[in-house]
Design a protein that fits this description.
With about 280 residues, this protein is mainly beta. It has one helix and 16 strands. The strands form six sheets. A five-stranded antiparallel β-sheet has the order 2-7-8-10-9. Strands 1-13-14 form a three-stranded antiparallel β-sheet, with no helix packed on it. The chain is elongated. The chain starts with a helix and ends with a strand.
Amino acid sequence: MRLALLVAIALGAFGCGSENPQTDVGRFDGGGGDGGDLDTSGLDAPALDTSGLDAPAADTAGLDAPGTDASGADGGLVSMPCVATGACDPFDPTSCSDGESCRLGATGTECMALFSTVAAAGEVCTRSDGCEPGTLCLDFGEGFVCHLMCPDGSIGFCGAGQACGGGLGDTCVRVCRPTPVPCDIYAQDCVDPELACVLVTHADTGERYTGCRPPGPLTEGETCGTGVGTCERGLVCIRVTGVSSCRSVCSDDGPDCTAPQACTGVTTGWGVRYCSDP
């Protein structure tokens, strides 16, 4: 029964990878050299732990979705965190009384009772009220773990090696997730064989680079992007004249394109080359 409820809520909240304009879904558009646009979808949609009835419905958590990128007078990045709507501050562990934590409720943030035993950030959890204040119990495909909540627009809030990304029912409340490890998209040199080198954007700084993340199931030429998923290893999702499809990456040193395609497409921002139609 609990598993069925979990699946129902996850499908309703995530729309099977569909785009939600109010949340970061890891989808980016970058002009290609042949007029094509990059169209990628994030895979990090968390399954919500529904053992607590007050658990918030998670929309999505695409780590490679850009956060607020504001420029200061000197041209540097400025952290401009938002303020969550509600009776308490979810980013301040002391915002509620002892035995309570600030979590998302029906009308914004609320102080809610904690379970008798709670886990700390990074530790395994089994229920929505089983994480210490300031954290939430979520599953990003690696099992339920307590994740630190962070305000959208913040830079450096999560600490080294992590970034703030993913909506949780409130446009301000997000969670800290590890940033993808940099890699060579042509060589596909990720250490973990389960990961692929793909186009990503740092959630805090907006930096575009190639990093290791789980690949999608779609093959070359298949429709990809909004609502239909992402491409397998060595492919990027490119939109040309309103239609998105998986295209192979290419370079002078290999991999090569299959005729009649040629290695003339270039993604703006990343500079990654891909096979384009003549």
